[in-house]
# Entry
Amino acid sequence: MSSDRGAIAEGIAAIATTAAEMGQTEDDARRQVLQVMRSLVDGGDPALLLEAADAVTRQPRPPSHPVHQLEQREQIETMLGVTSAADQLAASLRAREWLRNMAEDLAAGA
# Structure
């Protein structure tokens, strides 16, 4: 993967992950991702979307904390409006699934 292509894949991964973290629907994320992708590369590229799905797995993850601190951390995070580690991980999984779905649909001509 060229460095430009890798940067594009990482950017697409970030867009999809952010959309998932913000509670957007798959259709909203699809529109955003495809608009950006088509502005950067000629047409739709299923392989680029699969690269982006893989890039999601390389995004930074929230640190883990000892079990005895989890309840207190959860209360503090809720009070501050911070997205919990579990919610961040769930968003990453959704983003990865969305990108794979988009790649499949593009490859099928949908």
User: Anything to note?
Assistant: Residues 62 and 86 are 9 Å apart (CA to CA).
